């Protein structure tokens, strides 16, 4: 069963770190991902650049609407993700608890599947 | 307060995640696989006793490792202090001090520890049954009762298998190390065989309980990916992963709501898992790029890919399937491959051609007692309108089937012919 672990960071948290602290946090996440890979648990993972560089798009009645970040209405932003393959919800929980970012952000865990059942 | 069952489930999950890392790290510092496995189990027992009362510790992996190390130190202290035991004791204590009880500190070694564990649990000195049981226990973190339920054998049988396997490894002084390059080929083959047996037990479920099936398949895929990290240039590893992903893609579609099998021909293909198919096809392409198109796992994956690529059953490329089975029969001859080749011939050229292709198999000693042979014969005879003969074949197949649901399915097909529908 595949689960998506999304890292929900408080907005602005990254800018509060010194460059060294930022690199250290990033390295810890890389090590965490490398460990998952060696254990055969990792399907994919990526870190994401700040949402201020991102944008949101919607199409309504043929009209394209683009909103540039930052998305100030939200308190959190998606900082990165790990797609893992584990046997159960409890195992996904155990992996999420190991994630270093659980210490400074929130890990949202969702099982993959169709969106209609 | 969370219920006891909740805590138990959490402990079991932690154990499945932590067991390989724990046993690997202990086996390296103790230089004794059997002792490592024993003290790791002791730590699990301690967790089952303590955590429901005191709660799950913040870093459960570190707790388990510290507990297991303490236990190892106790055992080594109480044993006669021969020089070797003394050395081990110093080693494990200095390890405990350096790592500060945090297994993640040793992450560089950890990948190799896992591979060492796979290679020792899948060692060719062990019987196939023992390899499967030991692999599920030390790499899958399954308990003896869970393994026993998966294979529908008494717990004592599995416990015996594991004790004997550990004894064999100790008697033969099998070291906890990666195989030397010269032995890597056969050792890898032995490990891949175990992985595929575990997957098949989950997928085909000749016995055992339903809830175990996805668990075994997930375990097998995980092990396959770990082996891939060592042998990324070996096409058969990618072939096996492709085969497992492609077969796993049909999980949801292959049984109905009550757990009865649904034939490939009538499965709802929109329920096949697109993610599994994508990963499977990518792994197959990788295997072929590496020049492995004629490996047995790669060929089987290529066969599964023929089905995955067909949007409807009618669009299946049977000519390619016959050609792939012919290749497979030449590199890995087996009556089961011949049986499947005959089915493909029937699809390409009609049921009579299929029956002709089956004719030589009836005398094959390995096919005696194999329910799929009469099952396939019944199917072809039914399509030729020879209903009485078809019914007799289905009844014979039902009598030979090991799985209750398959037996029920075959009896229904026989009964359907009796009613004349």
UniProtKB/TrEMBL annotation, chain A:
<dbReference type="Pfam" id="PF03795">
    <property type="entry name" value="YCII"/>
</dbReference>
<feature type="domain" description="YCII-related">
    <location>
        <begin position="16"/>
        <end position="111"/>
    </location>
</feature>
<dbReference type="InterPro" id="IPR011008">
    <property type="entry name" value="Dimeric_a/b-barrel"/>
</dbReference>
<comment type="similarity">
    <text>Belongs to the YciI family.</text>
</comment>
<protein>
    <submittedName>
        <fullName>Uncharacterized conserved protein</fullName>
    </submittedName>
</protein>
<dbReference type="InterPro" id="IPR005545">
    <property type="entry name" value="YCII"/>
</dbReference>
UniProtKB/TrEMBL annotation, chain B:
<dbReference type="GO" id="GO:0016987">
    <property type="term" value="F:sigma factor activity"/>
</dbReference>
<dbReference type="Pfam" id="PF08281">
    <property type="entry name" value="Sigma70_r4_2"/>
</dbReference>
<feature type="domain" description="RNA polymerase sigma factor 70 region 4 type 2">
    <location>
        <begin position="118"/>
        <end position="169"/>
    </location>
</feature>
<dbReference type="InterPro" id="IPR007627">
    <property type="entry name" value="RNA_pol_sigma70_r2"/>
</dbReference>
<feature type="domain" description="RNA polymerase sigma-70 region 2">
    <location>
        <begin position="19"/>
        <end position="79"/>
    </location>
</feature>
<dbReference type="GO" id="GO:0006352">
    <property type="term" value="P:DNA-templated transcription initiation"/>
</dbReference>
<feature type="domain" description="DUF6596">
    <location>
        <begin position="187"/>
        <end position="287"/>
    </location>
</feature>
<dbReference type="InterPro" id="IPR013325">
    <property type="entry name" value="RNA_pol_sigma_r2"/>
</dbReference>
<protein>
    <submittedName>
        <fullName>RNA polymerase, sigma subunit, ECF family</fullName>
    </submittedName>
</protein>
<dbReference type="InterPro" id="IPR013324">
    <property type="entry name" value="RNA_pol_sigma_r3/r4-like"/>
</dbReference>
<dbReference type="GO" id="GO:0003677">
    <property type="term" value="F:DNA binding"/>
</dbReference>
<dbReference type="InterPro" id="IPR046531">
    <property type="entry name" value="DUF6596"/>
</dbReference>
<dbReference type="Pfam" id="PF04542">
    <property type="entry name" value="Sigma70_r2"/>
</dbReference>
<dbReference type="InterPro" id="IPR013249">
    <property type="entry name" value="RNA_pol_sigma70_r4_t2"/>
</dbReference>
<dbReference type="InterPro" id="IPR036388">
    <property type="entry name" value="WH-like_DNA-bd_sf"/>
</dbReference>
<dbReference type="Pfam" id="PF20239">
    <property type="entry name" value="DUF6596"/>
</dbReference>
């Amino acid at each position: 069963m595949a689960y998506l672990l999304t890292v929900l960071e408080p907005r602005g948290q990254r800018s509060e770190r010194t460059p060294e602290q930022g690199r250290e946090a990033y390295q810890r996440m890389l090590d965490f991902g490398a460990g998952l890979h060696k254990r055969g648990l990792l399907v994919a993972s990526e870190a994401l650049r700040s949402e201020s560089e991102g944008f949101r798009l919607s199409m309504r009645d043929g009209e394209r609407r683009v909103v540039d970040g930052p998305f100030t209405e939200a308190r959190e932003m998606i900082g990165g993700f790990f797609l893992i393959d584990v046997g159960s919800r409890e195992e996904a929980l155990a992996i999420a608890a190991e994630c270093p970012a659980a210490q400074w952000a929130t890990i949202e865990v969702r099982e993959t599947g169709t969106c209609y059942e | 307060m969370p219920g006891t069952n909740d805590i138990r489930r959490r402990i079991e999950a932690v154990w499945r995640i932590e067991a390989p890392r724990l046993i690997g790290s202990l086996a390296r510092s103790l230089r004794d696989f059997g002792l490592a496995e024993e003290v790791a189990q002791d730590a699990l027992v301690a967790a089952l006793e303590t955590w429901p009362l005191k709660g799950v510790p913040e870093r459960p992996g570190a707790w388990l490792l510290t507990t297991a190390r303490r236990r190892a130190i106790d055992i080594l202290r109480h044993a006669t202090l021969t020089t070797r035991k003394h050395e081990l004791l110093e080693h494990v204590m200095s390890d405990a001090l350096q790592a500060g009880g945090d297994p993640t500190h040793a992450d560089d070694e950890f990948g190799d520890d896992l591979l060492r564990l796979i290679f020792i649990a899948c060692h060719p000195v062990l019987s196939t049954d023992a390899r499967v049981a030991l692999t599920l226990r030390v790499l899958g973190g399954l308990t003896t009762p869970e393994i026993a339920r998966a294979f529908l054998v008494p717990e004592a049988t599995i416990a015996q298998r594991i004790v004997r396997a550990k004894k064999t490894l100790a008697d033969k002084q099998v070291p906890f190390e990666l195989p030397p390059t010269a032995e890597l080929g056969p050792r890898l083959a032995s490990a891949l065989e175990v992985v595929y047996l575990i997957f098949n037990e989950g997928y085909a479920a000749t016995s055992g309980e339903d809830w175990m099936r996805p668990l075994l398949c997930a375990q097998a895929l995980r092990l396959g990916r770990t082996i891939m990290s060592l042998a990324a240039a070996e096409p058969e590893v990618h072939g096996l992963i492709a085969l497992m992903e492609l077969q796993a893609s049909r999980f949801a579609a292959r049984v109905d709501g009550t757990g009865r099998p649904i034939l490939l021909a009538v499965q709802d293909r929109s329920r096949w898992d697109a993610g599994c198919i994508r990963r499977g096809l990518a792994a197959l392409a990788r295997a072929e790029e590496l020049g492995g198109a004629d490996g047995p796992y790669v060929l089987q994956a290529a066969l599964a890919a023929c089905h995955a690529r067909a949007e409807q059953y009618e669009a299946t490329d049977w000519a390619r399937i016959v050609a792939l089975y012919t290749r497979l029969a030449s590199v890995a001859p087996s009556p089961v491959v011949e049986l499947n080749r005959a089915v493909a011939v029937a699809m390409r050229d009609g049921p009579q051609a299929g029956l002709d292709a089956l004719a030589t198999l009836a005398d094959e000693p390995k096919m005696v007692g194999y329910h799929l042979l009469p099952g396939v014969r019944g199917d072809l005879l039914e399509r030729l309108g020879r209903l009485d003969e078809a019914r007799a074949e289905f009844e014979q197949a039902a009598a030979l089937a090991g799985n209750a649901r398959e037996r029920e399915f075959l009896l229904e097909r026989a009964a359907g012919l009796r009613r004349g529908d």
